[in-house]
Write a structure and sequence with these properties.
Strand order of the largest sheet: 2-1-3-5-4
Shape: globular
Number of helices: 14
Distance between the termini: 74 Å
Low-confidence stretches: none
Mean pLDDT: 87
Length: about 325
């Protein structure tokens, strides 16, 4: 018995040492991955993003990931740059969107006025913007981000690398498709898959950019291009419920209902409070005859988003159909 206890003690000590070593190794790897020592990804990120932008372009940025890093890079590190960079506040894209919503046209003269009279005089603009002449504005390319919150402005945006160029006339889908193909061909490194050991900030920055590009194509109902962009966004950020929700929507549009169902389920698993996926999933289930499950999903969705009229209407229709099917004497 004494010898047995000694053996157990030795085995236990060995296991403890092995476990401790494993924890130390794992901890070191996590520390290495999350450490900001020698972290030069922001510089490379800006360099790659701006590679597709003309040297004298007008660049309007709003998102934190791009605006802060690009303006620092151009105004502090590269003060000799000819690019005119501004925070897009008040947003030119919002102005375009609002004009189009009121059934009025947007013309180049409106863009000139916004860049000369609105942006430079806005008290909240953090940068000292040099004045631009009308000739300069008309001569230079204007590059910006895409925002799904102002989709109508996307009519005047054409893919330019991973960003978008604002042009004078509405962009047809075929023109957008050709510009996207050119971007994929000229700047393939902008659309590469992650290697796997990137810092989480790097993954989020690239993932959000691809997500925004996907939104541009989705709003134009360019399903294959949108699907490619959201798949790439998913590779960079695997735990984003909104990306999974959009992937589900696109898979439906591409007539892949089983894959769409899985994407919607993944979205709700990643974020139980996300709005939208359950409503779409309920319709898929109802089409397959799973009416009771669909009703449960819609009730859940209604609790999350009580003001969504479409969901409420679908719930009423399905509950009414369920009652008819379960009435005495019904087949």
């Amino acid at each position: 018995l004494n010898q047995l206890e000694v053996r157990r003690s030795k085995v236990g000590s060995f296991c403890s040492v092995f476990l401790l070593f494993g924890l130390l190794l794992t901890g070191w790897d996590n520390l290495r991955r999350e450490s900001l020592r020698d972290y030069d990804a922001p510089e490379r990120f800006v360099e790659q993003i701006m590679e597709s932008v003309d040297e004298d372009a007008i660049v309007l940025l709003l998102s934190d990931n791009l605006s802060n890093m690009v303006t620092y890079d151009r105004y502090v590190k590269r003060s000799d740059s000819d690019q005119w960079i501004a925070y897009d506040r008040p947003s030119l894209r919002v102005a375009i969107d609002q004009r189009l919503k009121s059934d009025r046209e947007w013309e180049m003269a409106d863009t000139v006025n916004h860049l000369r009279m609105v942006l430079p005089t806005f008290k909240g603009e953090p940068l000292r913007l040099s004045p631009l002449s009308e000739l300069e504005i008309r001569r230079r390319s204007i590059v910006t981000e895409y925002s799904p919150h102002v989709p109508l402005s996307g009519r005047f945006l054409r893919p330019c690398g991973i960003l978008f160029e604002l042009v004078e006339t509405p962009v047809a889908n075929e023109e957008a498709r050709l510009a996207n193909e050119q971007a994929l061909s000229r700047f393939p490194h902008l659309f590469e898959l992650p290697e796997g050991d990137e810092h989480r900030w790097t993954r989020e920055a690239w993932g959000i950019l691809h997500q925004r590009r996907g939104g541009y194509f989705m709003d134009r109902e360019m399903w294959p291009e949108a699907m490619a962009a959201f798949d790439l966004a998913h590779q960079w950020i695997e735990t984003n419920s909104e990306i999974e929700y959009c992937r589900g929507y696109l898979l439906e549009a591409l007539e892949k209902p089983s894959e769409a169902r899985n994407a919607y389920l993944e979205a709700t698993a990643l974020n139980p409070y996300v709005r939208g996926p359950r409503g779409n999933l309920a319709i898929l289930l109802a089409k397959d005859g799973h009416l009771q499950e669909a009703i449960m999903l819609l009730r859940h969705e209604t609790a999350l988003d009580p003001e969504n009229e479409r969901v409420s209407k679908n719930l009423q229709l399905m509950e009414s159909e369920w009652k008819k099917l379960n009435m005495p004497g019904s087949e």
